[in-house]
Specification:
The protein contains seven helices and six strands, in the order αααβαβαββααββ. The chain is of the alpha+beta class. The strands form two sheets. A four-stranded mixed beta sheet has the order 1-4-2-3.
Length: 220
């Protein structure tokens, strides 16, 4: 009688040991379907949906158009996140373009040169991307359409050198996708978005002319 008891106890212990796998995923002691997706399961389905609806190919087409019509890169001084006059001028052009496509989302990537530690440079690249996003929002772009979540730090230099290199100290603005629930996107009219003519209203208006005592003067 002792042996069956021991056998039953060993089986119970074995089941208890199998209740959770390494990593905390429950197996026997929870209801079916209770394991939470850890963020990778839906990626393939999402990508297939984008491809089948045409959204992915249209996103690529729009990204190419953005790169062709607007400078996508701004550069920074060494160990700095400050936007100089040239960078601000480029970002104003980006903002003018972005405003004409309210259905589109954008992502800003930050980069550094190879001077400094990898950890420090990754943080610096991200801060540069955040500075660009902040400036674009100051130009009237909705923050929800902009992402500054990715930084390549020093890992993707344009010029491979251990020294200071301004061309490596940059941010790159890219088309990342379409705004969910936007009326145009819901109707699937991606092609209309891509091939929309660039609106002339994005160009700053000329100085207003006023006539004072028969003389035209430019507005200050």
């Amino acid at each position: 009688m002792i042996k069956p008891v021991l056998t039953l106890s060993a089986a119970a212990l074995a089941l208890m040991g199998c209740a959770t796998e390494p990593g905390g995923v429950s197996t026997f002691d929870s209801e079916a379907g209770s394991i939470v997706d850890r963020g990778t399961f839906g990626n393939a389905t999402m990508n297939n949906t984008l491809v089948q609806t045409g959204a992915q190919s249209y996103r690529i087409s729009l990204a190419r158009r953005f790169d062709a019509e607007v400078p996508s890169t701004v550069n920074f001084a060494f160990n700095s996140t400050a936007l100089d006059a040239e960078a601000r001028a480029i970002l104003r052009r980006q903002a003018d373009w972005i405003r004409q496509f309210p259905e589109v989302r954008f992502r800003v990537y930050g980069h550094t040169d190879l001077v400094g530690t990898r950890a420090y440079n990754r943080g610096l690249g991200l801060r540069r991307a955040q500075a660009v996003v902040l400036y674009l929002t100051s130009q009237g772009i909705d923050r929800s359409r902009l992402e500054a979540v990715a930084s390549f730090g020093e890992t993707q230099p344009l010029i491979v050198t251990e020294g200071r290199e301004r061309r490596n100290r940059r941010t790159v603005t890219e088309v990342s996708g379409f705004v969910e629930r936007h009326p145009t996107v819901l109707n699937g009219k991606y092609a209309e978005v891509i091939f929309r003519e660039y609106i002339v209203s994005a160009v700053p208006p000329p100085a207003i002319q006023e006539t004072v005592a028969g003389q035209a003067t430019g507005a200050e």
